[in-house]
Amino acid sequence: MTNTNGQRLWDSLMEMAKIGGTEKGGVNRLTGTDLDKQSRDLFKRWCEEAGCTVTIDALGNMFARRPGKNSGKLPVAIGSHLDSQPTGGKYDGALGVLAGLEVIRSLNDHGIETDAPVEVVNWTNEEGSRFSPPMTCSGAYAGVFTVDYAASRADENGKTLGEEIARIGYAGPEPVGDHKLGCFLELHIEQGPVLEEGGEKAGIVTGGQAQRWYEVTVTGQEAHAGPTPMARRKDALVAASRMVDAVNAIGHEFQPNACATVGYMRVYPNSRNVIPGEVFFSVDFRHPDDETLSGMDAALKTRCEEIAEKAGVSLDLVDIWHCPPTIFDERCVSALRDAAQEAKLPAREMISGAGHDALYVARVAPTAMLFVPCKDGISHNEAEYASPEACAAGAEVLFGAALRLAGRV
Ligand code: HGY
Ligand code: MN
Ligand code: MN
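That is the input. Now the predicted structure with manganese (II) ion docked in place:
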């Protein structure tokens, strides 16, 4: 017998996944789009149907509060994000938000009054796909970014996060950061293979690794693909390709644990018979240790400068984001660990390879995360899958941990 209703959670997940659903079974629900609005509207309706009061801050962060006996206490918050990657999966973010709602629904089912209020949170723009960097609005909430910086982040068409959140009607009245939380729990699929390979059903997440993001612009010279001799070319794409190879080499050289990715590239003018004059691309570096990440940073800059010099192109390499390693709060970690034990789930402790809103919320409130396994560890892919049992187990552990932290009257 469980406290939570796994079938209801699964039904809500599948209902939410219809918003921005893709042919391959994933979701494409980018921040500030009409689909983002639809997902927010649905979430808000469900929360209000569950008796919650929903407040929204100026960047669209949504807080759905279930009252506790002691309204003066700061809430136990549970949440994640409803925005997705362009070829995202049904579970990344949505599971954390809807499992939080399931905890609320289950507290209602059992007529449980908690001492502290319990809240469900949807953070704006966790993915950083349309508007970089990621975790922008939980970052602004935590004071890592100014609200103006977050609102000013523009997509490739020049539209800003602030304009788009206002356009969809989710620029709320609450000042960002004013909505204080007693603690924050985030359930997420692991997005890697560790739990599935280890046979565990729960990951008690004790922290997150460090990250650095860069934007690189390589400028050569457009010229005709026919009459221009090879020796006279300033081919921005050839130089950028060597830099991409250098990024990958750095990832392999800084093992164990380093991750290095170029996920986004624009070639200009992108015409078949023109030697590319300009290439813009992203770099995503990660490592659990900040010192080692700094070593990767230095290697990137040295090698890209050497490649540019040799190719006769110019280089503009900009550090756009650094998120140092995060250590989560022991009391929140223990609540999750004990609740997993109570639910008789085989669990392991681990740190998060992916970034999550929890990494920033941890700056201003005691925070911890819970992972559940996803099939083949695949995520940021339309094939992303977590079983109904894994999702239900995650909600059950969240319920137990939230009750421990909020207190039962
Ligand atoms: O990039 C990340 O790790 C997260 O999915 N935004
Ligand atoms: Mn996520
Ligand atoms: Mn993600």
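Residues 290-311 form the longest helix (22 residues).
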